[in-house]
Specification:
With about 375 residues, this protein is α/β, with parallel strands linked by helices. It has 2 domains: about 180 residues, Rossmann fold (3-Layer(aba) Sandwich), CATH 3.40.50.720; about 150 residues, N-(1-d-carboxylethyl)-l-norvaline Dehydrogenase, domain 2 (Orthogonal Bundle). It is built from 16 helices and 8 strands. The protein has an 8-stranded mixed sheet, with helices on both faces. Helix 7 links the parallel strand 7 and strand 8. Helix 13 crosses helix 14. The chain is globular, with a radius of gyration of 20 Å. The chain binds 1,4-dihydronicotinamide adenine dinucleotide and 1,3-dihydroxyacetonephosphate. The site of 1,4-dihydronicotinamide adenine dinucleotide (NAI) has 25 residues, from helix 1.
Length: about 375
């Protein structure tokens, strides 16, 4: 059966139809959804560490990742494997889709198998809690130098379940090498998945990581019953904080207005499919963090990234009272109602921070 991702008999497309091999490392919800998407155009092999995931995807009677993406059949052409070597051999593009805390170890294993002409695209959204590194910093630490110019980052508003269904989605591909971003853009775009591109790797990565913290905050606010005004304020002022911190770390402020910043922030702060938002709603309704995490099979990156963001803002002297408050609710058991009062009663300021005005004058 054709999925919605393929279905458009009247399409008059200027998009390339070139077919290559795509390897996907990580058989969670996002790795599986991206593999379903990629297999509409390319020979695609997904590596999963869980034997039951590999078996369920390959079993003709199942053809589904019943562990991480239940309810979404995978197309005929998609194959799963428990061998990283098999997934990456002859692949022009390798999508790396593992949670942040496992990136360094997974990529150290993968490094031995990679060839300098292969492109590695990180689809992970987080900041390491141990080292405060972005994924780009982790990858340039663990991968051979010959591969550094072949790295790209995919981010933007994209719930796995919606991509798996072929619902129209737009994302951003970042690479320090425009040529690499353009190649990935060309190979991953379809009539249901539109890729934009940028060279602002830092902005794209930080947007994708920091929005998860705010999504937990919005969930807490909704769980407490604070309503639409509070949510809109959190999204807008949260975006200001994300921008201040990202700019202090070298990003361009305009990137934060794009798909990887505002786009993903709006999606995860308002969409009920968000795991991060769900963690927040449950916290706001009075559940304890450990019970919430223990009940989830899926990763909610914002829990650990709230800690990394808190440390980074402190280290750089960046004002981030909302993210700081979210960190205190998640990790220090602070009462969210008291945090709201504290944040509302801070000294009054201008809406736009001068550091952002200055950075906005730089070429994008
Ligand atoms: N699910 C979504 O809608 C989206 C997720 N992302 C990001 O993609 C990344 C991966 O998330 P999902 O695929 O959703 O994960 P998931 O929550 O569905 O699954 C957990 C993943 O962690 C892996 N894992 C668990 N223990 C591991 C270990 N010891 N070593 C290596 N891997 C281990 C599992 O194999 C599985 O792939 C995250 O950074 C997430 O923020 C980005 C966009 C959309
Ligand atoms: O990043 C995502 C969508 O763009 C997924 O968000 P959650 O991890 O909160 O579900």
């Amino acid at each position: 059966m054709m999925s919605a991702a393929h279905a458009d008999p009247h399409e008059t497309s200027s998009l390339s139809k070139e077919r290559v091999k795509v390897g996907v490392i990580g058989g969670g919800a996002w790795g599986t959804a991206l593999a379903i998407h990629a297999s509409a155009r390319h020979e695609t092999v997904v590596y999963a560490r869980e034997t039951d995931v590999v078996e369920a995807i390959n079993d003709p009677a199942v053809r589904e990742n019943t562990t991480f993406l239940k309810g979404h059949k995978v197309p005929e052409g998609l194959r799963a494997t428990g061998s990283m070597a098999e997934a990456v051999e002859h692949a022009e593009v390798i999508l790396m889709v593992v949670p942040t805390q496992f990136v360094a170890r997974t990529m150290t294993d993968l490094a031995k198998l990679l060839k300098p002409n292969q492109i590695v695209v990180s689809c992970t959204k987080g900041i390491s809690v141990d080292s405060l590194e972005t994924v780009n910093q982790i990858l340039t630490r663990v991968l051979p130098e010959a591969l550094h110019s072949r790295l790209a980052y995919l981010s933007g508003p994209s719930f796995a379940a919606e991509v798996a269904k072929g619902i129209p989605t737009a994302v951003t591909i970042a690479s320090k090498e425009d040529e690499v971003a353009a190649r990935v853009q060309d190979l991953l775009s379809t009539n249901r998945f539109r890729c934009y591109r940028t060279t602002d790797v830092q902005g794209v990565e930080l947007g994708g990581a920091l929005k998860n913290v705010l999504a937990i905050g919005c969930g807490i606010s909704d769980g407490l019953g604070f309503g639409c005004n509070g949510r809109a304020a959190l999204i807008t002022r949260g975006l200001s904080e994300m921008t201040r911190l990202a700019v202090a770390l070298g990003a361009h402020p305009l990137t934060m207005q794009g798909l990887a910043g505002m786009g993903d922030l709006v999606l995860t702060c308002t969409g009920d499919l968000s795991r991060n938002r769900t963690v927040g709603v449950r916290l706001g309704m009075g559940e304890n963090l450990k019970d919430i995490i223990d009940s989830m099979k899926a990763v909610a990156e914002g829990v650990l990234t709230s800690q990394s963001a808190h440390q980074l803002a402190k280290k750089l002297g960046v004002s981030a009272p909302i993210m700081d408050g979210i960190y205190r609710v998640i990790h220090e058991g602070a009462d969210a109602r008291n945090i709201v009062s504290e944040v509302m009663c801070r000294p009054l300021t201008a809406e736009v921070d001068p550091s952002i005005l200055q950075a906005a004058a730089r070429p994008a």
